[in-house]
Amino acid sequence: MRAVVSVHAVAIFGQPVFAGVFLSGDYDGLRLHEAGANLTTSLGCIQLIVAIVVWVRLRLVQPFLATLAVVVAETVQYFAGMAGALWLHLPLGVATVTGVVVQFISVWRRSPSPRTMRALGEEVGDA
How far is CA 120 from CA 6, 15, 111, in A? Predict the structure, then answer.
């Protein structure tokens, strides 16, 4: 989960940069922004699959619910951007970047519990 969220965070941070390149007058920035949108949306779907595995294996539903919210927002944002609905596309962009950053912080702050370690099949020294 940490790896996928980390890659997702890096990809989503590129999106405002590519949009800024386009808005600065470099029309290749729009092509890069579109490619980044495809990558970011795909990573969101991969993260959703990983979150389902975490939910089933470790009985942690929070990563799934948070990822589902981000994926729904990314999907709406994707289609809003394709339709040119910038009034929706821009605020959702801010929300999705924020959501992924919060997930990044959450997965890296949480240390695996002894129960999680047992579910992964690793030895745990209980005190």
Answer: 21, 35, 14
Residue 43 vs residues 9, 84, 86, 112, 123: alpha-carbon distances, Å: 9, 23, 23, 23, 31
Is 100 within 8 Å of 9 (Cβ atoms)?
Answer: yes
> Does pTM top 0.70 for this prediction?
yes
Contact yes or no for 47/56 (Cβ under 8 A): no
Question: Tokens in use for 116?
Answer: 């999680």
Report whether 4 contacts 46 (CB < 8 A).
yes
Tell me phi and psi for residue 65, to 5 degrees: -65, -40
The residue with tokens 């920035």 is 29
Q: Averaged in consecutive runs of 10 residues, what is the pLDDT profile of the chain (127 residues)?
A: 97 96 93 96 98 95 97 97 96 97 94 66 57
User: In the predicted model, what is the mean pLDDT of the chain?
Assistant: 91
- DSSP-derived secondary structure letter, 24: T
